[in-house]
Design goal:
Elements (H helix, E strand, L loop, with lengths): L2 H11 L11 E5 L2 E4 L4 E4 L2 H4 L8 H11 L12 H13 L6 E5 L2 H16 L3 E5 L8 H6 L3 H4 L9 E4 L4 H7 L4 E6 L15 H12 L2 E5 L23 E4 L10 E5 L1 H4 L15 H16 L2 H22 L3 E7 L2 E6 L4 H9 L2 E2 L1 E2 L4 E4 L7 H23 L9
Helix pairs in contact: 3-11, 4-11, 12-14, 13-14
The structure holds pyridoxal-5'-phosphate.
Length: about 400
């Protein structure tokens, strides 16, 4: 099939739930991908933050190939050597105190498990989440997610969820009642627009949750595995949650999530109360083991910190050069530029020029490149963005589109 046929067939047969970009990808390596016509792109979408170790990392490929030839499926009611090796390895790198692991298949599932766990352990029902939060789209996770365009078509959601302003610990304290089981928060909001709270926010939340006997859940689905310049974003403030959610880059691109908790909390879940057919399958565990090793051995968190700083400075130079940009925000290789209008056209123009970019909301361009991206590739992204912003600004100034519209 050629490009047009692939697009038409996918549109015809697949549920129409994604806002599609006009690219047919067929190959990836590191921070680069190629389309069906052989055109190369620097990938700042990275599978929506999945490609931490880059596309087709050789160690992940080797581990998956080896496991495919050995044992693909092994339900967690039976023991498995690779799963065991992965569990030992992951517990070496997560914040101390999180000592039990519940493997799941996705970010939303890790949040679902966290919510059920919090309810079960505390025998309370309610959850405080943040305005601007994104925790996934299954019903429980959606109840914690903020954006009404995701929530409203599916009301009523799980009862007992309320949202308070992100970054204001006192608002969490005011919202706690004798029914509150947990507070759930992303250390940095991703989908909400790359929002970084003030230093000390997570510590304040920790203090409040301890005082009021409420569990603290960190959703590190997007911020985990080195993305923000530390292995986990909570390490920037030295705060350990009671429950942590992980997914995205964990298994090198294969679908996997984890819910981690302190032992006494996880032990409140009894046999059969929460499980899934694919939880902890040997294939994803092999991929995840190789991925974690690559993140550690290749010092990807440190790399994200250094290259992220370089990238951010370059983007700040563009922000200073063009009036259409409002603000650059980011930590490590999780960066956003807020514009004064919808960024969709700039995304399409970047695609034409060989760079894949992501949005966060309507007016924010988001960069979640593989952490193996190099300086030359970052320079290419910046050069393309320079051109795209120039085109956009001159069009808006000449009145082709309004300057402050949308
Ligand atoms: C912070 C956060 N939590 C949860 C999710 C949901 O993950 P998934 O799409 O794997 O269900 C996402 C996805 O973007 C996320 O960014």
């Amino acid at each position: 099939m050629n490009e047009k046929e692939v697009m038409a067939t996918e549109q015809k047969f697949m549920a129409n739930i994604f806002s599609k970009r006009p690219v047919v990808l067929t190959k990836g390596k590191g921070a680069l991908v190629w389309d069906i016509n052989g055109k190369e792109y620097v990938d700042c979408i990275g599978g929506y933050g999945v490609c931490i170790v880059g596309h087709c990392h050789p160690k992940v490929v080797e581990a998956v190939k080896g496991q495919v030839n050995t044992l693909i499926s092994c339900h967690s009611s039976l023991y498995n050597d690779v799963r065991t090796a992965f569990l030992q390895r992951i517990l070496e790198i997560v914040p101390k105190g999180l000592d039990k692991v519940l493997p799941v298949n996705s970010g939303a599932e890790s949040v679902e498990a966290a919510i059920k766990l919090a309810r079960k352990f505390t025998c309370k029902t309610d959850v405080i989440a943040m305005m601007g939060a994104f925790h996934g789209k299954t019903l429980g996770a959606l109840s914690a997610t903020w954006d009404k365009k995701y929530r409203e078509p599916f009301l009523p959601l799980v009862p007992g969820f309320i949202h308070v302003p992100f970054g204001k610990a006192e608002r969490v304290e005011e919202a706690i009642t004798d029914k509150t089981a947990a507070v759930i928060v992303e250390p940095i909001q991703g989908e909400g627009g790359v929002r970084i709270p003030h230093d000390g926010y997570l510590k304040e939340l920790r203090g409040i949750c301890d005082d009021r006997n409420v569990l603290l859940i960190f959703d590190e689905v997007q911020t985990g595995f080195g993305r923000t310049g530390r292995m986990f974003a909570c390490e920037h403030s030295g705060v350990v949650p009671d429950i942590m959610c992980l997914a995205k880059g964990l298994a090198g691109g294969l679908p996997m999530g984890l819910t981690l908790a302190k032992e006494e909390i996880m032990s409140s879940l009894k046999i059969g109360e929460h499980s899934g057919t694919f939880f902890g399958s040997p294939l994803v565990c092999a991929a995840a083991l190789a991925t974690v090793d690559a993140v550690v051995n290749e010092k990807l968190p440190e790399r994200a910190a250094t290259l992220g700083e370089y990238f951010k400075v370059k983007l700040e130079e563009l922000e200073a050069k063009y009036k259409i940009a409002r603000e650059v925000r980011g930590k490590g290789l999780m960066i956003g530029i807020e514009f004064r209008f919808d960024v969709y056209k700039m995304i399409l123009r970047s695609i034409e020029k060989g760079v894949l970019l992501l949005d966060a909301g309507r007016n924010i361009l988001r960069f979640l490149p593989p952490l193996v991206i190099d300086q030359t590739q970052i320079d290419k992204v910046v050069a393309v963005l320079d051109l795209v912003m120039k085109e956009e600004e001159s069009e808006r100034l000449s009145g082709a589109s309004s300057y402050q519209n949308d």
